[in-house]
Amino acid sequence: MRPTSARSVTPPLSFGILDEKAVTIVGRTFLRSMSLIKREQFLMHNQEGILFFHLNDAFLGSRVMPLGEQGEVLHLLARYPLENYLAASERTRRAVLTAVVVIALIVFPLGLLLLQYYINTPLRQLMSGVRRLQKGDYEERVELKASGELGELATALNTLAGGIRERERDLSAIIDQIPLMLYVKSAKDLRFVKLNRAGEALLGKSRRELIGLNDYDHLPAEQADLLVEEDRQVLSSGVVRDIAEEFIDAPQGLRTLHTRKVPIVDSDGCPCYLLGLSEDITEQKEAEEHLRQWAKVFDSTSEAIVITDLDANILDVNHAFSQISGYQKVEVEGENARIMKSGRQDRDFYIGMWQSLLGKGSWQGEIWNKRKSGELYPAWQTISTVYDDDEKKATHYISVFSDITAIKRAQDELNFLAHHDPLTRLPNRLLLKDRMQHAIDRASREESQVAVMFLDLDHFKNINDTLGHPVGDQLLLMVSERLRSILREVDTLSRQGGDEFILVLEGAEDLPSVLFVVNKILELFELPFNIAEKELRITVSLGVSLYPCDGRDSNTLIRNADSAMYKAKENGRNQFWFYTEELTQRAVQRVDMEQALRNVVSSGELELHYQPQVALPEATIVGAEALGRWN
Questions:
Q1: d(Cα 186, Cα 226) in Å, to the nearest integer?
Q2: What is the model's pLDDT at position 107?
Q3: Pairing assessment for the beta strands 58-66 and 73-81 based on DSSP bridges
Q4: Phi and psi dihedrals of 285, rounded to 5?
Q5: Given a cut of 90, is residue 584 above it in pLDDT?
């Protein structure tokens, strides 16, 4: 800057010195323009510090300077012209305005940039987040770096979105638990926007596949036409519609749906969505058809049918019930089903029945009932719960049963014949082995003996051949009755077939006790048997084996008793024989001999020889004896 400019801003000060009476010592006279009041103030100023005065044409400053101990002072004065101050102030003002304009030109654009960065951009981000919330997009967060109120607002929006997102997940989870198909369609184009898990199962497609599709995209055109027409009627009327039957093609085949459609409107009352709730009633409709058919045959079926209320009070019965129970319809209406209770089942049986009936809705099993006459009879009974179609609430019980007396008798007979001889009703081989094992186990625990007797009737074949099998069968029955008459309840008598019997004596204490039973058996056959007006006499051969000395299992004991029985026959019949090791060896030899003899004829090992019979006195041949020789 030029020096003149520098001097122009320097105020032109003038100085002076006055004594204590305001007499000028040095400089100009400064007090001329001073009023009397200000002059008095000036003269009275005798303290340290500077005193300022505003004159008409200048600013004046005064300072007191003490001279010594006598109290004399000097006043130092400085004067600054007012016009110089005003000129300097104007120049300063202009400079400040210039600076302000320059700064504004610089700061305003910068302020706009800062406003754009710190306010406009965050606001746009916030508005974008709000619009996403309005559209139902709650997944994306509002990422805002701004702090302060805008940052708090962004945090609030994210918290709101997170809460809505969490509630939406909870709502989706609840909707997925609904067993009915629930879906939401856009009112604009009737495309799916929501679908629950039951809808996926019914339609056979995932919601990912179905979202964005309409009915024409996954159903035949005819079905889609009907569904779309119904949807549009609901949206246009704004009224909830209940559709009793809708038909759709599903992977499981043609399904019948009971659907309720609800229009969803916005704040202006315009439809924006269509909510649908569909129940697959295919099985229910089939059941209703079956019930209609059942009603037709209610009175013609051969099984008894009883309808009761929830307290088991009888409401209706069919004709077969009257035939089986003996009660007429008018006799049981209003009566409790307990009138048929037989008393054969205990309390636990009925507790289990009701638990199944109340828990599963049905019970099935065998039960004993009582007829009007008091006779007890077995029945195969099924009890089912009947539910109200709308509320799924139990309303009645239906009991269907049949008299299985004949079946039980047949089953009992079959079970009996599976373990008993059909002629004598004695245990057969299967039951005998079970009884023997039981006897052996008991003897093993108690360290006792079991006696096994093998009985064979002597020359029984002759009776069959001469008198016929009916007589032979009657003889076997009488033999079995006589044998049972001398046995204890713990003993077992079994028929093995033909004329062979096996007797098992449990708890045989010693040999004399076994011999006592053997002798009793032999005595039984000393008396004749009167059959078909004929008196028949027959004897028996017995073989005895003992557990544990003669064997430790049923097969061994039976085989050894059989060997002993053959020994008794070889020694003249009508006697008993106890088992020895020699008998076993001989039995093995006999079996081997029989097996070998089967092949001797075909192999030519057997030759026929005739030996003459000669009468000695006359020395003449009177006959011949045929001999077979085994080479």
A1: 17
A2: 67
A3: antiparallel
A4: -65, -40
A5: no
Which DSSP string do the residues of 336-392 spell out, in sequence order?
A: BGGGGB-S-S-HHHHHHHHHHHHHHSEEEEEEEEE-TTS-EEEEEEEEEEEE-TTT-
- Cα within 13 Å of Cα(187), Cβ side: 19
Structure tokens at 532: 């078909």
DSSP-derived secondary structure letter, 454: E
Report the distance separating Cα 217 and Cα 200, nearest Å: 15
Mind listing the pLDDT tens digit for each residue in 547-575?
Answer: 988 899 999 999 999 999 998 898 889 88
Contacts of 132 (CB under 8 A, 6+ apart): 138, 140
Lowest mean pLDDT segment, chosen from 148-157, 272-281, 452-461: 148-157
Tell me: pLDDT of 7 over 50: no
Q: Which residues lie closer than 8 Å to 245 by C-beta, 6 or more apart?
A: 256, 257, 258, 281, 285
The alpha carbon of residue 368 and the mean position of all alpha carbons in its chain are separated, in whole angstroms, by 34
Please list, in sequence order, all residues whose beta carbon lies within 8 angstroms of the beta carbon of residue 281, skipping any fewer than 6 positions away.
245, 256, 257, 258
For residues 521-529, give the mean pLDDT. 91
Residue with more model confidence, 608 or 261: 261
Q: Peptide bond preceding 122: is omega within 30 degrees of 0, i.e. cis?
A: no
CB atoms within 10 A of CB 576: 22
The two tokens of residue 170 are: 């909870």
Residue 2 binned pLDDT confidence (cut-offs 50, 70, 90): very low
Residue appearing with tokens 């504004």: 104
Residue with the two structure tokens 């057969």: 428
What's the sign of the alpha-carbon dihedral 547, 550, 552, 558?
A: negative
Q: Which helix (H) or strand (E) holds 5?
A: helix 3-8
